[in-house]
Design goal:
single chain, 613 residues, 5 domains, disordered N terminus, Alpha-Beta Plaits, Elongation Factor Tu (Ef-tu), domain 3
Length: 613
């Protein structure tokens, strides 16, 4: 979509009763972005000739994968059936469980939420998770059943499920087809009629909540804000960050339409952006409150809970010279993704890099791909791990997110691992395969509840380390894609855990170390060296691959050497000549093995991910 020339938006309405702030929440692939497209068309926010599918998904990665990664804001003007004009601020949120933090930030800037449920799938795991977030935030829920035009749709049954969840009569649940535009205008009317207008004093001190941000080379840090109280009179007003105390002179105020358009001012109830001009990305944090530098507010708005990473992995530049570029890229990226954490670390095999924390495997995959695309970096990611709590013999408790940092066994009293409460929604015909899958991953059955005709919710407790190792792919495979999953942290529990080291050419590779349950050490070690044998290229010498617990080798594979036919030029003569050539080759290979280096490709580090297959 070609950008328009930035101009001032038409004069704003200062009547807060005509403003509605709402978001769209749903399980992944239930049609959030498609519904947002229809709403943009109905309000003529985007010209028909400029309209594209997934208009609010601005990243190529979002379009390629068909999922929303970043929450997107847009302002719409709507003339309702009552003849009045309304200002609608919409935030389209992600649906994948790994981006629940994005959803929680969007909810804080809204008074209502449109809950979209697929008419063919019904209520699924992430539907409930996002719904509970919205209810806890005090938002008014507008339920919508989407995809009613599909042959497999059963909207009446889905409406009954929603009625059981929200106590909203089934006949009042909106039924739409976002793909063909059926009844989408009713969604806008429901938002206008049911979502309450924003509260807040126009004349009080300014308080604007930063719910997202990004870095612009020309405008510095651009803060996405929801103005709760007061008013930003103009871009010439000096502003102050209440948490950091940073004072700045903003370069521009604006709204999303959906591209960034400058405006003269922002007032209570509105959603927009402030181009701060700050060049240091650490000077502004998501969840901070912006007020005026002179006569500003004294009490900040409640911020966000800090996101707690669940999965950790090392990110290293393929070339050591790119370490500075990776550091700068992570600084800017964390401004756009507050759930990402990064701390410098070094590896004997990979050099200087960062230990990064993610909310899940999909989050990790997206972050790595965005860093490579948006900042032109070639990266190597180590095998993911989780945070373990280690009780040392001296009574000290330390957190370990890198297997290489696990203390010596003689100094360990107890190792506690994180467990998750996992909810699986599935047709009842797949209960057996799911129970078999979970039992093989040390899962504990907690309950089973029928939630509709032929649908059941299974609840388990499972170690997070087992959950991140291809569990979701296996779940989808065994249920032919019908099962959905949600999980939440359930606490730490003690386990008989050991560090499994990998030696390549008799040299330990710290980046390939993993922490496993003692009973699984042989199975995991054997599978790991077999995987490594497939991905490590052959050398001119034999390369032994060993898995060891402590000093005891428990599994071994060998990458055979590339051989040169040194006898090809011998057409006859005494056999001792051939033996002499072979002995000389043997001595050369022994020297090469002692001095040679084995290059370990990215596929070797990701092989650990496939151990659950």
């Amino acid at each position: 979509m070609a950008p328009r020339t930035p101009t001032l938006v038409e004069p704003k309405m200062f009547d807060q009763s005509r403003i509605r702030n709402f978001c769209i929440i749903a399980h992944i692939d239930h049609g959030k972005s498609t519904l947002a497209d229809r709403l943009l068309e109905s309000t003529e926010t985007i010209e028909v000739r400029r309209m594209v599918a997934q208009a609010l998904d601005s990243m190529d990665l979002e379009r390629e994968r068909g999922v929303t990664i970043k929450a997107s804001a847009v302002r719409m003007r709507y003339s309702a059936a009552d003849g009045a004009a309304y200002e609608l601020n919409l935030i389209d949120t992600p649906g994948h469980v790994d981006f629940g933090y994005e959803v929680s930030r969007a909810l804080a800037a809204c008074e209502g939420a449109v809950l979209v449920v697929d008419a063919t799938q019904g209520v699924e795991a992430q539907t409930l998770a996002n719904l509970y977030l919205a209810v806890d935030a005090g938002l008014h829920i507008v339920p919508v059943i989407n995809k009613i035009d599909l042959p497999a749709a059963h909207p009446d049954e889905v409406a009954d499920e929603i009625e059981a969840l929200l106590s909203i009569p089934a006949e009042e649940v909106l039924r739409v087809s976002a793909k063909v535009g059926t009844n989408t205008d009713a969604v806008l009317e429901a938002v206008v009629a049911q979502v309450p207008p924003p509260a807040g004093a126009q004349s009080g001190p300014l308080r604007a909540l930063v719910f997202d941000s990004h870095y612009d080379s020309y405008k510095g840090v651009v803060a996405y804000v929801r103005v709760l109280d007061g008013r930003v009179e103009s871009a010439s007003t000096r502003l102050r960050m209440m948490a950091s105390g940073e004072v700045m002179q903003p370069l521009e105020l604006g709204v999303f339409a959906p591209q960034m358009l400058p405006v003269a001012d922002l007032s209570a109830g509105e959603v927009g952006y402030i181009a701060t001009g700050l060049k240091d990305v650490r000077q502004i944090q998501v969840g901070d409150t912006i007020t005026t530098a002179a006569d500003g507010a004294t009490d900040p708005l409640p911020g966000y809970h800090e996101a707690k990473p669940m999965v950790f992995a090392g990110l290293y530049p393929a070339s050591g010279d790119d370490y500075g570029e990776l550091r700068d890229a992570l600084d800017k990226f964390r401004l756009n993704d507050a759930a990402l954490s990064a701390e410098p670390e070094s590896s004997a095999a990979l050099g200087l890099g960062f230990r990064c924390g993610f909310l899940g495997l999909f989050h990790m995959e997206i972050v790595q791909e965005r860093l490579e695309r948006e900042y032109d970096l070639a990266l190597i990611a180590t095998a993911p791990s989780v945070v373990y709590q280690v009780l040392r013999t001296d009574g000290e408790i330390v957190d370990v997110d890198n297997p290489a940092d696990l203390p010596d066994p003689s100094q360990i009293e107890e190792v506690n691992e994180p467990w998750m409460r996992v909810s699986v929604w599935t047709p009842d015909s797949y209960i057996g395969p799911i129970m078999e899958l979970v039992a093989g991953r040390r899962g504990l059955h907690r309950g089973m509840e029928y939630v509709g005709e032929g649908r059941v919710m299974l609840t388990y407790d499972m170690p997070l380390a087992e959950l991140i190792s291809e569990f979701y792919d296996q779940l989808k495979s065994r249920t032919r894609g019908y099962a959905s999953m949600d999980y939440s942290f359930a606490g730490y529990r003690p386990g008989d855990l050991v560090r499994l080291d990998v030696l390549v050419n008799e040299e330990p590779v710290d980046a390939l170390s993993v922490i496993v349950h003692r009973e699984d050490a042989y199975r995991v070690g054997s599978a790991l060296v077999k995987r490594l044998k497939e991905v490590i290229p052959r050398q001119m010498f034999r390369v032994p691959l060993q898995a060891a617990v402590g000093k005891r080798v428990i599994a071994r594979e060998t990458v055979s050497a590339l051989r040169k036919d040194v006898l090809s030029k011998c057409y006859g003569g005494d056999v001792t000549r051939k033996r002499k050539l072979l002995e000389r080759q043997k001595a050369g290979k022994k020297r090469m093995k002692r001095l040679g280096n084995v290059e370990i490709p990215q596929e070797a580090f990701m092989a650990v991910l496939k151990l659950g297959d």
